[in-house]
Specification:
378 residues, alpha/beta, Aspartate Aminotransferase, domain 1, Aspartate Aminotransferase, domain 2, three-stranded antiparallel beta sheet, 14 helices
């Protein structure tokens, strides 16, 4: 028997991640200029590493409570009360991806629809499919603003949820207060769950990142995490917050899927939340400015305001972003084709979570490939 031939239609419908392919390619190439992967180039602060090691040595190596460490949940809840005056319940999840998975399992029956703007984080389309739902992407080109009219026009009787991602991956776009308020208004009027993916919230550079819980607290499912902020992407640690009984209900789903977030990581996060990492935000703001300055003469792009990505148009001399990214790989620079994140194949993603030297070298090679100046968007 070839078990590979016995795959379900669900399994066959899921595509391999273009991001993970780039990660594997980077591991095989000698000394690549890797501007592809979205993880910080800094390590966890020393107090956080010590807290994790101390937790292991103290025996916090067994299952944690399914909903999460009470001290960590209460810290997260307290911050939400202070920031948003929102008395939400919190469950600690195995990363934001884990929180998104159990939220979709809770919300969708087969054939139900989920809306999100295109371009989108790669997992959205695949996770909706995995739980039997139908992903519906709504174009937000050319400036990646929230397409309120198009979103509302796409709503059907089967629509159950709307996903927001701000700061955005792959665009680096931070939604404005007016855009978030418009999304919240749509959720209220059409009785939709509003899933707000805010994994890059602590890496915003030009102002705050508005949260829909301020405008639609009863409809918002908030997903936040600490892996990017504290340089612990491998720990798989985040949280989901919602009002009412939603969190109480999804604890059952976590019991039978992820069981619990890693115990030692939860213990260490109690320390992490009292650790100042604002210097990383300042450093990445500077890297943002650097990459925009270097790319400006050769590429068109919308200046990012958060995260650590920029999403330029591929040069018109190339047939597609995939063709441009293949050419970039030939000169030792890894970037990701826009088709990974979009129904269009016109842009590509650069991650500036890298050393200044790699940013300078990589951008110089990309500009050389582009072969001519272009006008950068304001």
């Amino acid at each position: 028997m070839n078990l590979g031939e016995r795959l379900s239609q669900r399994a066959r419908s899921i595509e391999f991640s273009g991001i993970r392919r780039a990660y594997e390619l980077a591991a095989r190439l000698p000394n690549p200029i890797d501007l592809s992967i979205g993880q910080p180039d800094y390590d966890a602060p020393a107090p956080v590493r010590r807290a994790a090691a101390d937790a292991i040595l103290a025996g916090h190596n067994r299952y944690a409570m399914t909903a999460g460490l009470p001290a960590l949940r209460e810290k997260a809840r307290g911050r939400l009360r202070a920031e948003l005056d929102w008395d939400a319940s919190v469950i600690i999840t195995s990363g934001v991806s884990g929180g998104l998975m159990i939220a979709l399992l809770a919300l969708l029956d087969p054939g139900d629809e989920v809306l999100f703007a295109d371009p989108y984080f790669v997992s959205y389309r695949q996770l909706v499919r995995m739980v039997g739902g139908r992903p519906v992407s709504v174009p937000s080109y050319p400036d990646f603003s929230f397409p309120a009219r198009a979103v509302e026009a796409a709503i059907t009787p089967r629509t159950r949820a709307l996903i927001l991602n701000s700061p955005g991956n792959p665009t680096g776009r931070v939604l404005t207060e007016a855009e978030v308020e418009a999304a919240a208004d749509i959720a209220r009027r059409h009785d939709l769950a509003l899933i707000s993916d805010e994994i890059y919230r602590d890496l915003t550079y030009d102002g705050p990142n508005p949260c829909p819980a301020r405008y639609a607290p009863e409809h918002t499912i908030l997903l936040r995490g600490w892996s990017k902020t504290y340089g612990v992407t491998g720990w798989r640690i985040g949280y989901l917050a919602a009002a009412g009984t939603f969190v109480d209900e999804i604890v059952r789903l976590q019991q039978y899927t992820y069981v619990c977030a890693p115990a030692m990581a939860q213990e260490a996060m109690v320390t992490a939340l009292d650790t100042d990492v604002s210097e990383h935000r300042r450093d990445y703001s500077r890297k943002r400015d650097l990459v925009c300055e270097l790319l400006g003469p050769a590429f068109r792009f919308v200046r990012p305001s958060g995260g650590f990505y920029v999403f330029p148009e591929a040069p018109r001399a190339f047939s597609s972003s995939e063709a441009f990214c293949a050419a970039a790989a030939q000169v030792g620079v890894l970037v990701i084709a826009g088709s990974v994140f979009s129904d269009r194949d016109t842009h590509f993603r650069i991650s500036y979570a890298a050393s200044d030297e790699k940013i300078r070298t990589g951008c110089a090679r990309l500009c050389e490939l582009a072969g001519g100046p272009a006008t950068r968007d304001a």
